[in-house]
Structure formats: C-alpha cells, structure tokens
C-alpha cells in the first residue's frame, strides 16, 4: 500500500524560491509506486494543495488534512522542503510533533538550535580535530560597540545573520570602516548576527545522512569562486562557482572529514539529511566548522544531488531510503 506523503514547500523568507525549486527536484524523483504525493505550498496567505486540474485547496491546520475528490486526505508523513522559517527553525517540527505526524528532518530542538550559528558552534566546540573561528554574537536590542569588536577580532571578518541561510545578508569586511554598514545589512535579515574572523583555506561542503540505520557521509564537494565568498549568486547561479564532487583530497583527509562530520551529526542529534560547510587550512590541515544546514537545497545546482550521484546512488533510491528511515 502506498504511503501518503505531503511534500511541503514555500515558506515565509527570501529563501522560498529555493524551496520551490528543491521541491520540484524531490517531486520528480519520488517513487510513485511507493508514495502518493501531495505538494503543499506554505505562504503568508495560507497552506494550499494545488492540483493540476483544479483550484487550490486549503489545508486544515487543525489536523493537517485536506478534502480532495470527495475524501479526506490525511498523511503518513511529511517531506519538509522549506529552507529558512518556518521549515528549518523547528516551528513546523513542533507542530507535526503535536499532531504525531512524522517528518524527514531533524527534530524541533535540533532544528531550532542549529538555525542559530552562534549556539551551534558552542555545542560542537570540543569535538576532536574540529576547529572554530573566533567570533562575537550581536543582538539588535543591545548597543553595538564597534571598538570592542575591533579589539576582540582580527580583520577581515564575515558578518552574517545568525539565523539566516543561503548567505542572504552576509558580508565580508576587509576594512574597519565598512563594518557599520555590514552590521546594518545583517540586521535587516535577523535580530541576531555573528561576526567571525575570516579563515583562509579551501572551502568544502559535505552531506551527512542516516540510511538503513547507519550514518553515511557523502563525498565532499570543493567550492571555488572568483567572488569574495560563496554568496547567494554563487550558490544558485550556474557557472559562477566551480564545484568539484568528489573533492580532490587525500584519502587520510577524507577519512578525517568523515569522522568529524559523523561526530557533528551525532552531537547535534541530527535526523534525515544535513549538510556541513567547512574550511581546510594549509595543505589539508585544520578542519574549521562553518555551519550546518538541516534542510539542504535539492535544486538542480545543489550539492546533495551531486554528492548522492558521486556516492553511486540515484535520487529515487535516496529519497525512498530517507523516507523509510524518518517516516516508516
């Protein structure tokens, strides 16, 4: 018997457009022999199922159901494909927990904590062989002392919204006179921000997922861009960045990356598929943790589909195993 799955997309942040593209990839590769899929769009105006040959149907939020073709549709599970709020910050997870409906992502607590870059770094700090850039956390309701930042941290800095994604609102500050504007830009996206020292090295990202009861670290991707940093355009515009999967790193480095990534996944109590961004300094030296994404992109240009292919698995099998692990 087919499982009835809600594929939840959209969202209430600037990342909604990426969520829609991710959901399109997922929908295309979900096994229709195993799953009856309803793509549901979440917006500020409401939650709707939009069948191809009918008007959109509003979801009953009391029990997350909908009426379609003369019957009430309830769901065996939810594939959450919303980047940013409210899909990646724990809000939807808490809602589905109360309704006892399983979902494909990390739980509410892990989702909420990992959405905050500063809190996440405090938790993973102490993992063997993992390094963290020096940083300061600022809050919008508190006065900003620029002089203390300049005393505490060494230029250049990255200034980024603490709870944001897709590098929206992020700046690289090489001159102290640009710091004030960078802080203002980040505060437009969030009430908290993180200022951290720039770490020079090669940039990588790696997917981690539990499949068939075992944690699997996918082949890492090396990211190279001529831009100052891997910003929104570099992430989602084909040709702006060079992405090499699997990354050209030594076997011993690959083993160390897998060990650290597994430790991060376990310490943060992750579920489903996540993506960890990191930098290797020098000649594949220290591993610096940048951030973790608990609902990584699944678009045509996203890393996870690339890494799944490099792992020797097709997306239909990958998504089926992911649903079996988290929902079945």
Automatic annotation (TrEMBL):
- Which UniProt keywords are given for this protein, alphabetically ordered? ATP-binding, Cell shape, Cell wall biogenesis/degradation, Cytoplasm, Ligase, Magnesium, Manganese, Metal-binding, Nucleotide-binding, Peptidoglycan synthesis
Which Enzyme Commission numbers does its entry carry? 6.3.2.4
Task: Identify the cofactor(s).
Answer: Mn(2+); Mg(2+)
Q: In which pathway does it act?
A: Cell wall biogenesis; peptidoglycan biosynthesis
Q: Where is it mostly found?
A: cytoplasm
Say which domain of life the source belongs to. Bacteria
The note on cofactor binding and number reads:
Binds 2 magnesium or manganese ions per subunit.
Q: One GO MF term, please?
A: metal ion binding
PROSITE patterns, from UniProt?
A: ATP_GRASP, DALA_DALA_LIGASE_1, DALA_DALA_LIGASE_2
Binding sites annotated in the UniProt record for Mg(2+) 1: 277, 291
Task: List this protein's GO terms for biological process.
Answer: cell wall organization; peptidoglycan biosynthetic process; regulation of cell shape
Q: What class of enzyme is it?
A: ligase
Among Pfam families, the record links this protein to: Dala_Dala_lig_C (PF07478), Dala_Dala_lig_N (PF01820)
Q: Which residues form the active site?
A: 15, 166, 302
What residues does the ATP-grasp domain cover?
117-324
Annotated Gene Ontology cellular component terms: cytoplasm
Which cellular compartments is it found in? Cytoplasm
Report which reactions are catalysed by this protein: 2 D-alanine + ATP = D-alanyl-D-alanine + ADP + phosphate + H(+)
Where Mg(2+) 2 is bound, by residue?
Answer: 291, 293
User: What is known about what this protein does?
Assistant: Cell wall formation.
Name the family: Belongs to the D-alanine--D-alanine ligase family.
- Protein name per its UniProtKB record: D-alanine--D-alanine ligase
- Tell me what organism the protein belongs to: Pedobacter antarcticus 4BY
Gene behind this chain?
ddl
């Amino acid at each position: 018997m087919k499982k009835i799955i809600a594929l939840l997309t959209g969202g209430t942040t600037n990342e909604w457009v990426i969520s829609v593209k991710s959901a399109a990839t997922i929908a295309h590769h979900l096994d229709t022999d195993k799953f009856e899929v309803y793509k549901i769009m979440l917006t500020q105006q409401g939650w709707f199922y939009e069948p191809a040959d009918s008007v959109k149907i509003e979801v009953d939020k009391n029990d997350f159901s909908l009426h379609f073709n003369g019957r009430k549709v309830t769901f065996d599970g939810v594939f959450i494909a919303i980047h940013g709020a409210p899909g990646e910050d724990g809000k939807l997870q808490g809602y589905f927990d109360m309704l006892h409906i399983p979902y494909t992502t990390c739980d509410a607590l892990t989702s909420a904590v990992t959405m905050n870059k500063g809190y996440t770094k405090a938790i993973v700090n102490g993992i063997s062989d993992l390094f963290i850039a020096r940083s300061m956390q600022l809050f919008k309701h508190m006065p900003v002392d620029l002089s203390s930042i300049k005393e505490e941290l060494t230029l250049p800095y990255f200034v980024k919204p603490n709870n944001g994604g897709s590098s929206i609102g992020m700046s690289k500050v090489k001159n102290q006179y640009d710091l004030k504007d960078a802080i203002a830009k980040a505060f437009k996206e969030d009430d908290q921000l993180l200022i951290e020292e720039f770490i020079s090295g090669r940039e990588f990202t790696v997917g981690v997922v539990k499949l068939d009861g075992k944690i699997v670290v996918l082949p890492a991707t090396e990211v190279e861009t001529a831009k100052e940093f891997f910003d929104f355009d570099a992430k989602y515009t084909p040709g702006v960045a060079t992405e090499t999967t699997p990354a050209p790193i030594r076997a011993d480095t690959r083993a160390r990356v897998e060990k650290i990534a597994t430790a991060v996944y376990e310490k943060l109590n992750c579920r489903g598929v996540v993506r960890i961004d990191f930098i290797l300094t020098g000649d594949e030296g220290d591993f610096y943790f940048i951030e973790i994404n608990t609902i990584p992109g699944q678009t045509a240009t996203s890393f996870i589909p690339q890494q799944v292919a490099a792992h020797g698995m097709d997306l239909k099998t990958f998504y089926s195993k992911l649903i079996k692990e988290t929902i079945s």
